[in-house]
Specification:
heterodimer, A: 369 residues, alpha+beta, Rossmann fold, OB fold (Dihydrolipoamide Acetyltransferase, E2P), 5-stranded antiparallel β-sheet, 20 strands, 33% strand, B: 269 residues, mainly alpha, MetI-like fold, binds adenosine-5'-triphosphate, binds magnesium ion, Transp-assoc_OB_typ2 (chain A), Spermidine/putrescine import ATP-binding protein PotA (chain A), cell membrane (chain A), ABC-type putrescine transporter activity (chain A), nucleotide-binding (chain A)
């Protein structure tokens, strides 16, 4: 049997007479991987989790679990457990009983429950906290209780709805590492929701970028960062410089009035496109040596690098990350490699996009041989 | 700073006067009278009398009726409150249920005399379905029925609020962990509404102990509650001392119930 555990087939969701919250969404989730649903507020992330957990039903389309259709199976019959955004721990039960909840429902023996709960608590570094009341736990501890409550049932999939959003930055980084570690140790499929792109890039095997109820792009963090499919993804994942341009021919693109060699091909001649260059791929040189000339308008020290903004003579704004410091109002030049240029077509489907990218690597292989 | 304190103390004055005049003073008076026998001498005779079988039995029966009234109110109010929270215009429905409690108790009692009377609606109905006219008024049944009717809104309100403030995500969480609808109710909803239930019990049980007009109008004096006994002693037999003694025990009972029902509250909250 295949490795696919969850499959969405053309799923749409609509509440009442409102507009579509999910519009014809299809994807597959493989066993044992760490997935992230990433997108701005209101794009439908929670809705996807609720559909998987069974708290709501799809308006159209099918949801398969282990190859079986599960559209109408109630939440309590699904092999899925959720870590809710605000944890949803039961306030009338202590830590032990919260974690034991699912096992008690299954009418497991007391001795067995005790062993399992203690194991789960030690998994999340909360051994000895069983007798505490929920209100006496810190935010990070509550989150771990919520995770323990989910993993103790040994589900096939764990859904996590922005579980880190309430934590302060330091704890958040720490929990990101711990969660990822935990997922590797357990080998359970995690579907993690966040609107923080850094979090998504740091933790995931695979990311689904969502916007307005559709999946814009899916892929590994590297794929999505390096090869965003469109302006939305490029903008949402990391900071980027996006300018409009024209694809003169294969490997030659024109923007800000100049022509540059690039590594993209397979587009129509003189097709209007958008060009993305990541700020860290731009290198500062003298005015004369630069491939682009900008006038510095501001500089911020970010600790690891300087964040420099400037404008070219056409008025485009350029963002540069550099370890070199410059002065405001300096005229500087910018240099970049052909690989740094990423060309995006307008309205390209993910399928066509993937095909186009695949053809590049084939091309590379041919050249090398 | 001092000024601030002073104004705050000034605001306290009306409240303090109120408590003094209408709570503390009457309680002291009641305690004082309970030590005065029917001849006007200081004695423990009233307390001795209270511990005779006649009064103990009356106390017991009063508790028993209050218990039944509370129990039936709870049995009706809980599901009603639960269903109310599920309706679309729940605040409106709640209002409709609460409104009757604003009507004077005597008025409602007289209405029931009409309904339960020999030629009332209830008996006409029994006649139609072939059971025939029954003695409804002046029975235990009618007493409990009318009392429950009167107390239900007071029981519904705190329970409704308790159910309504449960975070719905908790119900999702229970379902997510495999709980059926019934498990979810038993393990999450009910425990989380215990405080509402306890408030409801307080609000119903204590007044039910001291009900007195209904005992005469609806139960035809067949039911004697502590309240009825107090009324009789003060107004009919003019034995103020004995009436005050019963009142002392009623007050003790109230404190006990308050203590019992809010003692648990600390743990749940
Ligand atoms: N029960 C509901 N009834 C009507 N509309 C709803 C309901 N639940 C969600 N929506 C709408 O569906 C859209 C998507 O909601 P969803 O909760 O999935 O967003 P999200 O991506 O999780 O956002 P966030 O990052 O803010 O949590 C929103 O526009 C929201 O208003
Ligand atoms: Mg959400």
């Amino acid at each position: 049997m295949s490795n696919t555990i969850i499959q969405f087939q053309n799923v749409s969701k609509q509440y009442d007479e409102d507009s579509l919250v999910l519009d014809d969404v299809s994807f597959e989730i493989e066993r044992g991987k760490f997935y992230t649903l990433l997108g701005p507020s209101g794009c439908g992330k929670t809705t996807i989790l609720r559909l998987i957990a069974g708290f709501t039903e799809a308006t159209k389309g099918d949801i398969h679990f282990n190859g079986k259709k599960m559209n109408h199976i109630p939440a309590n019959k699904r092999q899925v457990n959720t870590v809710f955004q605000d944890y949803a721990l039961f306030p009338h039960l202590n830590v032990f009983e919260n974690v034991a909840f699912g096992l008690r429902i299954k009418k497991m023996k007391n001795s067995e429950i005790k062993a399992k709960v203690e194991e789960a608590l030690s998994f999340v570094n909360l051994s000895g906290y069983g007798d505490r009341e929920i209100k006496d736990m810190s935010g990070g501890q509550r989150q771990r209780v919520a995770i323990a409550r989910a993993i103790v049932n040994q589900p096939e999939v764990i859904l996590l709805d922005e579980p880190l959003s309430a934590l302060d930055l330091k704890l958040r980084y720490q929990m990101q590492g711990e969660l990822r570690e935990l997922q590797r140790r357990l080998g359970i499929t995690f579907i993690f929701v966040t609107h923080d792109q850094e979090e998504a890039l740091a933790m995931s095997d695979e990311i689904f970028v969502l916007n307005k109820g559709t999946i814009q792009q899916s892929g590994t963090p590297n794929d999505i960062y390096d090869e965003p499919i469109n302006r939305f993804v490029a903008d949402f994942i990391g900071e980027s410089n996006i300018v409009s341009g024209t694809m003169i021919q294969d490997y030659l693109v024109e923007f800000v009035g100049k022509q540059f060699t690039c590594v993209d091909k397979g587009m129509n001649k003189n097709e209007p496109v958008e060009v993305v260059i990541r700020p860290e791929d731009l290198e500062i040189t003298s005015h004369e040596q630069g491939m682009l000339q900008i006038k510095v308008s501001s500089q911020l020290f970010r600790g690891v690098h300087y964040e420099i903004t400037g404008n070219d003579k056409d008025g485009n704004e350029w963002l540069v990350h550099s370890t070199k410091s410059v002065n405001v109002d300096d005229d500087i030049g910018l240099k970049f490699e052909p690989e740094a240029i990423h060309v995006m077509r307008f309205d390209e489907t993910e399928e066509d996009f993937d095909k186009r990218l695949d053809s590049y690597s084939e091309g590379d292989a041919n050249e090398q041989s | 700073m001092n000024n601030h304190k002073l104004t705050r103390n000034l605001y306290m004055v009306p409240y303090a006067v109120w408590i003094l005049l209408f709570v503390i003073a009457p309680i002291l008076l009641v305690i004082y009278y309970s030590f005065i026998d029917i001849q006007g001498n200081f004695s423990f005779a009233n307390y001795e009398k209270f511990f005779t079988p006649v009064y103990l039995k009356m106390t017991l029966s009063s508790f028993w009726y209050a218990f039944l009234i509370t129990l039936f109110s709870l049995l009706v109010a809980y599901p009603t409150a639960y269903l109310l929270t599920k309706t679309k215009h729940k605040q409106l429905w709640l209002l409709l249920i609460i409104v009757p409690s604003w009507i004077n108790l005597l008025l409602k009692a007289y209405a029931f005399i009409g309904i339960f009377g020999t030629y009332g609606v209830a008996n006409s109905f029994l006649e139609v379905i072939g059971i025939g006219t029954q003695q409804l008024l002046f029975t235990d049944f009618s007493f409990i029925f009318v009392s429950v009717y009167i107390f239900i809104p007071f029981m519904i309100l705190p329970i409704f609020n308790a159910i309504d403030t449960i975070n719905p995500v908790l119900l999702d969480a229970a379902r997510d962990l495999g709980a059926s609808k019934w498990d979810t109710f038993r393990r999450v909803v009910f425990p989380l509404t215990m405080n509402g239930v306890k408030s409801g019990i307080q609000i119903v049980f204590i007044p039910a102990l001291s009900l007195f007009m209904l005992t005469r109008l609806i139960a035809g004096n067949r039911v004697i509650t502590l309240g009825t006994a107090i009324e009789q002693h003060f107004l009919v037999t003019q034995d103020w001392g004995m009436g005050a003694t019963i009142a002392v025990f009623l007050i003790i009972a109230m404190f006990l119930i308050m203590f019992l029902t809010s003692g648990f509250r600390k743990r749940g909250a």
